[in-house]
């Protein structure tokens, strides 16, 4: 656990009688994709909220690169290097792709109270944003408004926004959701290369993608991690097969 | 492969269409500004001072709306209490002139603050006090959103309205006269055309500031706070301080307009603090085009002209204003500027 980039220690979150997160500990190490899977209602969203900063855990702590971030806001966590994408993509639709990505660059440089220099001529913002787009193979769409993009392209923009933060860890919430086979395959390919630079905590329903990408998998059921291991171990685990995969998928 | 980062010359990444070019929008804007500048000059030399003062009135109301537009249009903060800043600006001018006229200090303890009839001093004081008031009101109000934000800004403005209404020292509900227009070095501010030109410069500066601000990093963050504050926070920027600073600047601009208005009329009363005036400013912003640089000016021209022309015919002129507003909201959501100059392009 010592070299973990992102680590959760004994997280608990209760909503009334519902124990949505029950003693969850997991970590993310450099160079890996750690997938978090679980059936609907397993408490994935609650857990993501606690990592990203929308939800405060009742007990336990979250560490990013050795810093306790448990009580930090979403924006503070982002500045410390936690990039994330959303299950339903969250971008400013009327603005161009570049404008969305440049926001992250601006945050990284920490100068939002600059009132006079024009953003549209600010190479310090434009260049890194463009590079992040090139990284996601999307630079040809740089000046297209987001509302004209396909679903898959929006996913790529979100990842580019996260990348522009020069993150230490990426938190991707169902990036394959709603993508066709082609888009899904392309994103899988991109993530495979990306993980060498930034470790990724991947929450995903697409089992094919998870088994192909993930170095380690944690299975969340009813708020607890019931199994943990590489894809082979997970495929063989009887509890996982019962709770999640079903016999037909095995 | 993924690492396709090519070597580009510095400055090779450029936003398309950032070069200036003259189009329909530019033509409409120049016409609007040109007429506003030229007509009062002509009227002055023909001896129709009434029309010069009317133009000053339009200009000042437009400037107040420029301030509100920064909050509503660019920042997405629907303030229903901007009369508070307009009125405070007006009372700064009135109270300062009152003490200068009387040779009594505004304050004698702990520091001595004399009155002043110098407009530069008055404007500075008006802008700073309005910024301070907006900092307090904004810091509390911006913790809420939507209807609650509208209501809380209204509540604060009403508190100040009733306070002014019941403070007899400065006229209470009767208001406070400014017997001699406050002065500037070297200029005769009592001259109607001179005063109009001062107001006109104020309006231009307020619009230039807004324009420049919205093209800066701060403007980019404010735009993102309006369009998607989740994205802004996820990018690592907290929306709250960005909104608060925009709110403060917005209030300072409206407050300066209020100071100009008091001196134009030689009078300030709680009327300019009332929620009616907050509503009128909102109507002007919506009429002209929310979030359009020239929207407040177009809206103010339309509003004051209707008030003057139709108000001269019938006291029910606001019925027609309502119909026009209805038409704009239903059929021209980008306001008069959207109708005349086309839709705003997002880069």
Automatic annotation (TrEMBL), chain A:
Pfam family, one: ABC_tran
Record's keyword terms, sorted: ATP-binding, Nucleotide-binding, Transport
MF annotations from Gene Ontology: ATP binding; ATP hydrolysis activity
Signal peptide boundaries: none
One GO cellular component term: plasma membrane
Domain ABC transporter residues, every copy: 6-247
SMART domains registered for this protein in UniProt: AAA
Coiled coil (UniProt feature): none
Entry protein name: Amino acid/amide ABC transporter ATP-binding protein 1 (HAAT family)
Automatic annotation (TrEMBL), chain B:
Principal localisation: membrane
Keywords: Cell membrane, Membrane, Transmembrane, Transmembrane helix
Pfam families attached to this UniProt entry: BPD_transp_2
Membrane topology, as annotated: Multi-pass membrane protein
GO molecular function: branched-chain amino acid transmembrane transporter activity
Cellular component GO terms held in the UniProt record: plasma membrane
The keyword Transmembrane helix is assigned to this record: yes
Residue stretches spanning the membrane: 30-52, 58-76, 83-101, 121-140, 147-164, 192-209, 240-261, 281-304, 316-341
Entry's localization field: Cell inner membrane
InterPro entries assigned: ABC_transp_permease (IPR001851), LivM-like (IPR043428)
Protein name: Amino acid/amide ABC transporter membrane protein 2 (HAAT family)
